[in-house]
Amino acid sequence: MMDKIAKIVGWVLLTAGVLMIVWTLYASYNIFTGKAVIPEIFQLAAEESQAPAAQGKIPTSPTDIQEEMGKMIKEQLQGFLPTDTLPKLLNLTVWSVLAFILIFGGTQLSSLGIKLLRK
Predict the structure, then answer these.
(1) For residue 33, what are the contacts with CB-CB under 8 A and spacing of at least 6?
(2) Is 10 within 8 Å of 117 (Cβ atoms)?
(3) 99 closest CA partner among 35, 44, 30
(4) Where in the chain are the domains?
(5) Per-residue model confidence as pLDDT tens digits over 59-111
(6) Residues 41, 91: contact at Cβ < 8 Å?
(7) What is the pTM for the complete model shown?
């Protein structure tokens, strides 16, 4: 009787582990091919829109010059590196770590199920 219960639990664990691995790989494939949305852990903070500076006005104070330089650098960087690149990269990294943990857990469940089936 105990042997049958061990076999049933073994098959359940083996199936659960394999399904966990397959689901993780399928979800990762969909995320990395763009068919599914990346889970958003990191989000870009919404910026307050500032009134545009008067065109043709020459900044005279040091703070005005510093603000104008900051705006110019920001515009140049946005052309070179889109603003959502860093959060997307971080979200993909977090998903990759989570997928690794899920696959490792599925492997452990499956190996436990196989050990129970061998008894």
Answers:
(1) none
(2) yes
(3) 30
(4) 2-39+60-118
(5) 778 888 888 888 888 777 777 777 778 888 899 999 999 999 999 999 999 99
(6) yes
(7) 0.69
